[in-house]
Amino acid sequence: MVLKLLFCGTVHTLLAKGFPHSQRSLRFSWYWSSQLIQLQKLLVLPLRLLGVAKLLVLFFSILERSTKIDPDDSEAEPVESLRGEIELRHVDFAYPSRPDVPVFKDLNLRIRAGQSQALVGASGCGKSSVISLIERFYDPIAGKVMIDGKDIRRLNLKSLRLKIGLVQQEPALFASSIFDNIAYGKDGATEAEVIEAARAANVHGFVSALPDGYETPVGERGVSAVRGSKTKNRNSQAVLKDPAILLLDEATSALDAESECVLQEALDRLMRGRTTVLVAHRLSTIRGVDSIGVVQDGRIVEQGSHSELVSRPDGAYFRLLQLQHHHI
Ligand SMILES: Nc1ncnc2c1ncn2[C@@H]1O[C@H](COP(=O)(O)OP(=O)(O)OP(=O)(O)O)[C@@H](O)[C@H]1O
Ligand SMILES: [Mg+2]
């Protein structure tokens, strides 16, 4: 920057004053350039301080940002039992940290109790965000999320979440035993309940075969060799709650083909009698669901069973299928 100023200043003075005076002009430019360097040095500290101040303001604004969602609002209606009907009606949504980037614009989705609904679409289209809205990690900007016909903002969140089983995209486990990790799914779970949940998630045989069985450590320093065990554990946690609603975000994505097959069988069994929302990248894993919704441009642009959607060669699902075939 300084060199550029020096060069431009010199050329400018040479052109303006003519070459005979170039010696004097050069001295003149050197003088101003050295002054500029001093000025720049003087400005560095205040500019740095300004940067630090900006960071501090951001930091304090984050600290002061209180969540509007109270998980245990005593005024809200407690949830005793659920049929499991879900509806997102005219939902507009943007993440609080990026309010000017809309994720959904008039999104509508209705899932009948006991039905399975898959969500598909390009990465970043908002599949996981639908799950987050159903779990009420966030509230929509406009429109509402309803469960059994009630706006979930009117329901006591803690009791609602007890009825919802969630298996997330990035399963995180505690650095503890497999037993503790499964038991985390329910307060005061007994050994029999943990084993039953593990059986339901098709993981009991696999855990029992480990040298330390249910006491095998997992998580941070645990058995990294046990491929896919994290996802399986998470599934067992979700089962333990015996939820009316199951939310599966890429539940089988961390698994190899063989484990995926085993888990798929378990999931099919689990889904029976529960409303299930599944997010899947691999379209082959969702052929049997009751309904598939394609998320695109902040809305559900197409919905129907696999056989209905494949019969529309101009449709969004058909295009996704073709794209996936090209990648395989
Ligand atoms: N916590 C967050 N804060 C701000 N923006 C977010 C957050 N989570 C997701 N987004 C943005 O919201 C949009 C939708 O993201 P989302 O995770 O729902 O997509 P997705 O369909 O699940 O993608 P993928 O298939 O990659 O999992 C993306 O543009 C993403 O960058
Ligand atoms: Mg996602």
UniProtKB/TrEMBL annotation:
Upper lineage: Eukaryota, Viridiplantae, Streptophyta, Embryophyta, Tracheophyta
List residues of the ABC transporter domain: 88-322
The alphabetical list of record keywords is: ATP-binding, Membrane, Nucleotide-binding, Repeat, Transmembrane, Transmembrane helix, Transport
Q: Does the keyword tRNA-binding apply?
A: no
**Keyword set includes rRNA-binding:** no
Q: Which InterPro entries would you find in this protein's record?
A: AAA+_ATPase (IPR003593), ABC1_TM_sf (IPR036640), ABC_transporter-like_ATP-bd (IPR003439), P-loop_NTPase (IPR027417), Type_1_exporter (IPR039421)
Q: Name one GO molecular function term.
A: ABC-type oligopeptide transporter activity
According to UniProt, the name of this protein is ABC transporter domain-containing protein
The family line of this record is: Belongs to the ABC transporter superfamily. ABCB family. Multidrug resistance exporter (TC 3.A.1.201) subfamily.
One Gene Ontology term, aspect cellular component: mitochondrial inner membrane
Q: Where in the cell is it found?
A: Membrane
**Where is it predominantly found?**
membrane
Membrane topology (UniProt): Multi-pass membrane protein
One of the GO BP terms on file: oligopeptide export from mitochondrion
